[in-house]
Every structure is written in C-alpha cells, then in structure tokens.
Design a protein that fits this description.
Helix content: 40-55%
Strand order of the largest sheet: 1-2-3-4-5-6-7-8
Number of domains: 2
Bound molecules: iron/sulfur cluster
CATH superfamily of the largest domain: NADP-dependent oxidoreductase domain
CATH topology of the largest domain: TIM Barrel
Number of helices: 15
Structural class: alpha/beta
CATH class of the largest domain: Alpha Beta
Strand content: 5-15%
Order of helices and strands: EHEHEHEHEHEHEHEHHHHHHHH
Number of strands: 8
C-alpha cells in the first residue's frame, strides 16, 4: 500500500543534493512512502539514493521509468537506475510514455521488463502515457499493474472514466500533472478535487518544504470539494480553452531553441504574478526566440494533445508583450492589482 501523498521527483532536480536529501527524508518522516522518479529525470534518482541510504528498504515504495525502445536500452537503464537508487530492486518499473504498444515482441521493452521481474529486479510493471486512447489500450491489454496518466481539475469525463476502468480491472491509477503543469499555484483545489477519487494515487511534484507540509496537512485533514471550487475550475477552463499546454516537454527539442513548455504558457504565468522580474532580460530573450520559429511542425507532431504550438506561441508572445506594456504604463499603481485591472475589475483596487 502506498501513502495517499505520492512524491513526484522531477522538481528535486532543482535542489542541491543535501537539500533534496533533507526534503525527501522529511517526507518519509511525515508518512510518505511512495516516490516516483525516472531514468531521464537528471540527478533525481541519485538524490533519492543518497537520501534513503541506510533507511529500511522495505518501508519505501520506489517507482522509476525506462524511456527505451529495445531490450538492451531497457536493461541498461534499469541497471543504472538501480545503481543510482542504491538498491537491488525497484518496486514499480514503468515504461515511460511509449509512442506505441507494439513492442511486446521478443527483444522489446515489455519482455525485458518481464525478464527483470523474474530476476527480482523489479516487483511490478507499469506504463505511463499522455494519450487517452493509447492509455486505454494499455489498460485493456492486461499487461500492466499500473497506469500513470495526467489527471487534474481540467480532465475530461473520458479521462476520469479511465480511472474507474482501472479500478474495475484492479490496475493502480497514478495521477500526474494534478497541478495542471504549474497553472494552479496552490495545492488546495487540486487536492480536494482528486480526493473525490479514493481509487487513485496522485504524485505531487514537490520542490519545497512548504509544499510538502501543505500536502501532508491536506492528507491529514482533507477539505471537501466545494461548489466554490467547482466555480473556480470552470473559470480556469474558460480561460485556458483548448490551448492548455501541460508542460510535459514531449515537443522538445525545438530546432529554433524555443523553450516550448514555458513559452506555451508564459502569458498565463505572468498574469498570475505580475512583477518586474517577469520582464527581465533573460525572459525577454526567451520570448523573442518565438520569432525564430521555422514552422517545422515537429512540436505539433510530438505533442500528445496535438496543440497547434506555433500559433499558440505567437499568441502567448503577443499577450506577454501587451502585459509588459501595461506593466510599464501602470508603474506606480499597485502591481498586484494589475491582473485584476486587466480583467476590468478596477473597482477592487
Ligand atoms: S514549429 Fe516552430 S516551435 Fe515548433 S518545433 Fe518547429 S521551430 Fe520549434
Ligand atoms: S506543447 Fe504539448 S508536448 Fe509541448 S509541453 Fe505543451 S502539452 Fe507538452
């Protein structure tokens, strides 16, 4: 059994080794036992290994992933993950967002995982995916113990339905991107939303002590999902429309060097926290790069949500520049009220 709070280990890449290890140990002390990382998450696995060396291995449930397309790559990534994690087995080993499911053949990824399971190097086999149809096929295949899939307040009825299908088939459902890839800055609303579904386990990307503390508190004293929260979600849904980028990064690399996951949402982030540092030189340079798009459409092809990235990027750039002009024009007024001003609610200033 995993703890209700799963710890997503992408953000610890941004902490120093010592700080990340302290945060991870604090999570364990707070009752978290489920940690989800991946071979491709930079030094995340090594930080877990450092944090947990010396702790009773049986009390931790470690999940990692292989982003591979052959038996050899799977095996070599697994061996490296075991070494970095300083362990001789991984509880849940996941096939990391495959583009197809036709690799059950001899010499393929899935067979390699079965072999590793037989050898006692992994306990369970899971899959992660961002495509609803592909995730559905994986669930129906009967090959996997778990599915990890994006689930948030913005999920569709079909996506929520998939969680119930997993329950019917006794598959663990691990919810990722519950904070909508950073579009929701606070854990309260997503936690209350997902708590309506006790048959799923969310993994929260945690970088700071205060974020950990909030999730632990919410798990200990869950708040009900209220009509006011539902209204908030509807507002967000309207604002984002069908151009909602999850920040997953599968569209990278971009030949023009555009940082798509950030640039696809840059105006939203600025609106949520309008301050001078949002318009510093680095940021202006990143936004100006959008002009270098050569319309190769590689990003559109690779985006699991088929987002029209070149068009959305231009829109975000224009909105960003408009906000910047407003920011400079309004200097001297309360910066924090700028967004409200933009929304036409000057009376609240
Ligand atoms: S279409 Fe533009 S943004 Fe997308 S990958 Fe090509 S150059 Fe980059
Ligand atoms: S454009 Fe698509 S692939 Fe790229 S970060 Fe956004 S959702 Fe992910």
């Amino acid at each position: 059994m995993v703890s209700r709070v799963g710890f997503g280990c992408i953000p610890i890449q941004r902490r120093s080794r010592e700080d990340a290890a302290a945060l991870l140990r604090r999570a364990v002390d707070s009752g978290v036992n489920f940690f989800d990382t991946a071979h491709v998450y930079g030094d995340s696995e090594a930080k877990l290994g450092l944090a947990f060396s010396g702790l009773p291995r049986g009390e931790l449930i470690l999940a990692s992933k292989a982003m591979a397309d052959t038996r050899e790559k799977t095996m070599s990534q697994l061996e490296e993950s075991l070494r970095r994690l300083r362990t001789d087995y991984i509880d849940l080993y996941q096939w990391h967002n495959p583009a197809g499911l036709d690799d059950f053949r001899e010499g393929g990824v899935y067979r390699a995982m079965l072999e590793a399971k037989k050898a006692g190097k992994i306990r369970f086999i899971g899959i992660t995916n961002h495509h609803l149809a592909r995730a559905g096929r994986a669930v129906e295949s009967g090959a996997f113990d778990t599915l990890q899939f994006p689930l948030s307040v913005l999920s569709s009825r079909e996506e929520i339905g998939l969680t119930f299908r997993c329950r019917e088939l006794d598959l663990g459902f691990i919810a990722m991107k519950a904070m909508c890839g950073g579009m929701i800055p606070d854990g309260r609303l997503p936690f209350a939303f997902l708590n309506q579904y006790p048959h799923i386990v969310p993994v929260w990307g945690i970088e700071r002590e205060e974020e950990l503390a909030q999730f632990i508190e919410l798990a200990g004293r869950p708040e009900p999902f209220t009509p006011a929260m539902r209204e908030e979600i509807e507002k967000l849904r309207l604002e984002l429309g069908d151009e909602y980028c999850r920040g997953c990064g599968y569209c990278l690399p971009c030949p023009a060097g555009i940082e798509l996951p950030l640039m696809m949402r840059i105006a939203y982030f600025v609106k949520r926290n309008v301050e001078g540092s949002q318009f510093n030189e680095d940021r202006l340079r990143q936004v100006a790069k959008i002009d270098d798009c050569v319309n190769c459409r590689g990003c559109v092809e690779h985006c699991p949500y088929h987002l029209e990235a070149p068009r959305i990027l231009r829109k975000q750039r224009d909105e960003f520049n408009r906000l910047r002009r407003e920011f400079h024009a309004l200097k001297g007024r309360s910066i924090n009220n700028l967004y409200m001003f933009r929304q036409g609610t000057e009376s609240r200033q």
